[in-house]
Amino acid sequence: MMEFLRNTWYVAMWSQDLKAGELVGRTYLNEPVVLFREPDGRVNAIEGICPHRLAPLAMGKLVADGKHIRCGYHGLEFNGAGQCVLNPHASGRIPKNSSVRAYPIVEKHSLVWIWMGDETPDASRIPDFSLLEGDLPVSKRDWLKMDANYQLVVDNLLDLSHTAFLHEGILGGEETIKADLKLEEIGDKIIVNRIMRNVPPPKFHDILFMRDGKNVDYWSNIHWSPPGCLINDTGITRPGASKEDGTGIFGTHFLTPETDTSTWYHFAGVRQNPIVWGEPIDSENMKQIADLRRYAFEVQDKGIIEGQQRMVNHRGSKAKFMPLETDLGTVRVWRIMEARIAAERTRAGQAAA
Ligand code: FES
Ligand SMILES: [Fe+2]
Questions:
Q1: Pick the CATH number of 137-342 from 3.90.380.10, 3.40.50.300, 1.10.8.100, 3.30.365.10
Q2: 84-86: strand order across its sheet
Q3: Predicted confidence (pLDDT) at residue 278 exceeds the cutoff of 70
């Protein structure tokens, strides 16, 4: 099994998708987890396997006013801290070691964040996604599943040179292959700035801007925070004009490993500099944008990334990538992740000794 960074915050789901009274079974980092929201709003996440006969706890139900999970097989009950609190059988004795693991949870920026590691969680290390709760209009908070390792999805976003080919006509084309690339490193954040000057406007952005098809400067600045949280600051402006005179989107992307070869992908777009240019944007334009975004991710990116995973599986231990110059951000991120996973392994070894 693949080694994931564990002592870090992962996005479990959008807050809106976890309603009180519902039991949600998910797998993160190869571990079955069950999540539920108590009537007072607090979110719990506990290991999703009943210690009695290993039934999935997600197949149970919420009881005790939505505060306990009752296993669907023989009725043991567990609270949000993972403690077995009721055995309905015989003497009612609760065996030792009957507790299941509870995972720390924080709700922030309209997301549920989960900590899968053994070290003490630090909520201040959740990356800043306050733009999801600010004054700018936010698209549908959406998600999809990809049958590919999460790093392949992160790599896809770190190297946006693929937009000229994979998303030809929507997010780029012949004229946007060549770009000025710059890598920045700020704290534990990596930023890959990509500028394409005096190029035809990609369809997606033209709808948000002038809708006149005239040449623009096109920027895509991708901000990565470990392990899989990204913002794509992307937009267009008139050639030579400032970003402030243009418009675009902050695309937020959250990649959480489900298994070695599958990923929870949560995403939403935040409208950037939503000045109304020319004809106002109507609901038809908004629908066009939403459809294009969904198509680009769900059909184009998902298709190629899942295809890549199949080829990686085919090569097995011999699988190896051949980075190009456009992979400068990708390679930097791989190195950071390797170093962090190695450091985590060392700390775990020291703690065990
Ligand atoms: S498997 Fe859960 S109570 Fe028996
Ligand atoms: Fe893409």
A1: 3.90.380.10
A2: 61-63, 68-70, 77-78, 84-86
A3: no
